Amino acid sequence: TEIKAWKEFDKAKLYMADLESGLHYLLRVELATHKTLEGAELKTFKDFVTVISKLFPGRQPVVKLLETLQEWLVSLPLDKIPYDAILDLVNNKMRISGIFLTNHIQWVGCQGSKPELRGYTCSLWKLFHTLTVQAAVRPKALINTGFEDNPQVVLQIMRRYIQHFFGCKACAQHFEEMAKESMESVKTLDKAVLWLWEKHNVVNDRLAGDPSEDPKFPKVPWPTPDLCPECHDEIKGLHSWNEAQVLQFLKHHYHHENILYKYAE
Ligand code: FAD
Is residue 2 in a domain? Predict the structure, then answer.
């Protein structure tokens, strides 16, 4: 395995290199294990691409690629699509036509202290947190997609993506259990941002001390007090979250204005 030099980064920022590397991995590695898409898988992938093409706060070439993929998927009258056709579309666009997605992995805020730690799963969390925040701050972006006025839109797409495609099957099962239990109760786009935050902390808590934990990035309740002191309250000596502050923090942290392009190709 190639050892890459450690990249300095600011944990209060989001890095486009992580989001784009994650998308590259999702489209060219994770999806590649499905030789043809059909039925519920195809529907899930189409809906995922529709939502991400509207909400991904990315650079023009990447957004264009997602839009092109979305238009192509909805225009196809087929009920089966070979993965290779999707790959062709993702690959056969040249920089010169202004449509392009990196084919290199460059983890920054998601780099691990060993190559097998962090990386893709970290970027997938960041991607979906970003999408929940984008849906909450730009709800009009989903007009005419069939997903407008659905406060659970991003959560439902994430649930289905994880269910059908996420390579870690045990993770998918855990996530499905949490979704079954309480996703239905999410009634606003803001609550969706908070739901995903809360469930991510449940996962962090479960994985603390697990071999998958990167010792350089211990699993702790997030955001830590150094990132957001106002998020933490103490009531009668017990820790509690100030959810209004947490929401404000998430909307700032996962907002497109908090994205840095350093290390992005
Ligand atoms: P991650 O947990 O991947 O988080 C990435 C970044 O998100 C953090 O660095 C931080 O900046 C931010 N963040 C952290 N907590 C929150 C929060 N509460 N809200 C918003 N942002 C936050 N691994 C398993 O071994 N078993 C599982 O069952 C499992 N289930 C998973 C389910 C899903 C849906 C996903 C996407 C991943 C799952 N994983 C599971 C992988 C695991 O959650 C981590 O992604 C992996 O261990 C790498 O951890 P990390 O240190 O990069 O931080």
Answer: no
